[in-house]
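Lab channel / #folding
Pinned by the channel admin:
"Please post every new chain as: sequence first, then the structure tokens as a reply. Keep commentary short and put observations after the output so the thread stays searchable."

First post following the new format, from NK:
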Amino acid sequence: MMEPPSTVVIIDDDASVREAIRSLLRSVGLQAQVFDSALEFLRQGEPAGPSCLVLDVRLPGLSGLEFQEELVRAHIQIPIIFITGHGDIPMTVQAMKAGAVEFLTKPFRDQDLLDAVQQALERDRATRRRASEIATLQQRIKSLTEREHQVMRLVVAGRLNKEIAAGFDVMATVDGQRAVELAASSRPDLVVLDMRGPHLDGDAVADELRRLYGEIPILVITADGRAEEKARRVAAFDFLPKPFDLDRLLGIVQRRLGRQLDLT
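Reply from TO:
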């Protein structure tokens, strides 16, 4: 998906300053919006894409510093570059502590403003990326089944994989005799079977599991290039040749468990 264009918002009650800054930004290919007061900007709302404010400290009505405080209280994280013809150290400190990108005193060098704008836009892009990632994670969490929520809470609590698996009767990959011993004590929901583990006869393990429980889902993993053939031989529901991505394995297991246990 293409990112909306970047926009620099200029808020200054001096029309000549607004137009001079807009002309400078356009000369380097940046889109600009101009307003003569903070309230006028608020009525229109934030741009859709990455953006920043070039904000005069002394404005009629709501001053630049007061506007910054309002944005902070409203959790609006648009980066701000302050410009002023009457700056002092306490004013600068106040603005920077509240998160301003830069505080420029008029007259300032064009390049200083352009550098600050690029820094501010990059900060806003990073903020938007983080917000998008968080939103995606929240949607994924909402899509989890109750059982998957339970597993996630155990993972976050620092529980070991084998502890989680034991709690849900899902058997992890183990060597042959140990797999049979575990299966004999508690029926697993699914078996991940390495066909070529140390001291492991995958065919024998599959036969013993089916002798104990009848039909049981088996996912075959192997490194010898014959995964599909071996999966057919033990009637596995799927197979993965090594090396494989762990997320892919987890996805296969979760999909299978979801269908088998009707967790939707």
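NK: Strands lie at 7-11, 31-35, 51-56, 80-84, 102-105, 191-194, 218-222, 238-241.
TO: also worth noting, The radius of gyration is 30 Å.
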